[in-house]
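We now fix the convention by which a protein and its fold are recorded. Think of the row as the fold of the chain written in a discrete alphabet. Here is one such record, which you should read through line by line.
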Amino acid sequence: MSLVILAAVVRRVLSHDQVGAPTILGAITAYLLIGLSYAWVYLALDGLVDGPILNPAMEGLPSYYSFVVLSTLGFGDVTPVNDLAQRLTAIDAITGHVFLATLVARLVSCTDSHGLGAESSHSQNPGAGNMKLSQGCLTHLPAII
């Protein structure tokens, strides 16, 4: 269910005509949904596997662990001790990097250069706080999103 919501949020973010507060908040929401989804996967894995998957044991740690890994903040206080958990941890970290890199690159590449830079001002361009997306930039969205 969370993946459906995540796909809907990302699609909505990429369909905005202007990059403004709603676009940025939508991107942040999508990132948080990814972290929570991985926390649920860690919880499920903990219930399916004999023995602990993290050291120390998992009580209250899935969301903390997921966001520490997703943001590649680094950790030393919690470590995966199961082969499957180690692989999932690597995928979690890669997902964080790929999501941020591709979403930011997509939003920046879709942003029209008008209204950016020192030569623009709010008196000349009242919408300078909202960067217009280039026409046709969002036409190549994957059908899955």
